[in-house]
């Protein structure tokens, strides 16, 4: 992993303030948390927590096997399974559900109007009809967004164009069934204003090799990797394919750059995870999602892997 001194980071203004979690849990109570993901589990060392939210909750005093039970459900990329998995969590009478990704959020919303939902993802919840407003969501849903709608897509494409100024065509790697349609639409709009051709390739069934074959056939000068749970989980494979084809690539998260990707622009994944956990803590202690503003990051990082840049001749 690269040292932080090898990165170039440009950071804007500070994050949106939110209420801090209270100090103590109800004595003797065991809390049940449901986590719903449309992707497959990420691999990790034996005994490691399967979800980073649970790691932060431990710091807040919630310990699995002591006062916390975590029920995790993974759709493994098959979004048709999500409604059934969401109903399973409801039947288990969890105290809160954390759905990750747009399809998981929709499935959780459809499954219950009573259990608090702390959503986590890159969706426009107002436009999607999930909440009434960001400031006062109403109903049983609140949460944390990884970006203000899809507003970062155009900025990321612009940064990629600046890095490769002679680019005439940009490849756009999109996983299937990921809810990335909004990103595609924004990328196409931005590409038009930047006078770029956009080559969209969907990784059907998680087949990134075939998607790259489609992209390379269009002869792009650079690559934009859509943000989704699967592109983060399979980041090492994507990074290797981008390097194999000599494509400068833009990603969402700094972790993708640390693993060898060229460049990322977005919020900090750790910040999003911390805020989701803080909201779960508040819900466990009786806060009403209807009154909890949906948080959006206002602090973003531009991160560049200098070793990868040199290897690409940039």
What does this molecule look like?
The chain is of the alpha/beta class. Helices cover 34% and strands 18% of the residues. The chain is built from eleven helices and eleven strands. It has helices at 52-59, 82-91, 102-111, 151-163, 181-193, 208-217, 229-233, 235-244, 254-258, 269-284, 306-311; strands at 31-37, 68-74, 96-100, 117-121, 141-145, 169-175, 197-203, 222-225, 249-251, 263-266, 301-304. The protein has a six-stranded mixed β-sheet, sandwiched between helices. The radius of gyration is 20 Å and the shape is elongated.
Helix and strand layout, with pairings?
Elements: E1 31-37, H1 52-59, E2 68-74, H2 82-91, E3 96-100, H3 102-111, E4 117-121, E5 141-145, H4 151-163, E6 169-175, H5 181-193, E7 197-203, H6 208-217, E8 222-225, H7 229-233, H8 235-244, E9 249-251, H9 254-258, E10 263-266, H10 269-284, E11 301-304, H11 306-311
Parallel strand pairs: 1-2, 1-3, 3-4, 4-5, 6-7, 6-8, 8-9, 9-10
Antiparallel strand pairs: 10-11
Helix pairs in contact: 1-10, 2-3, 4-5
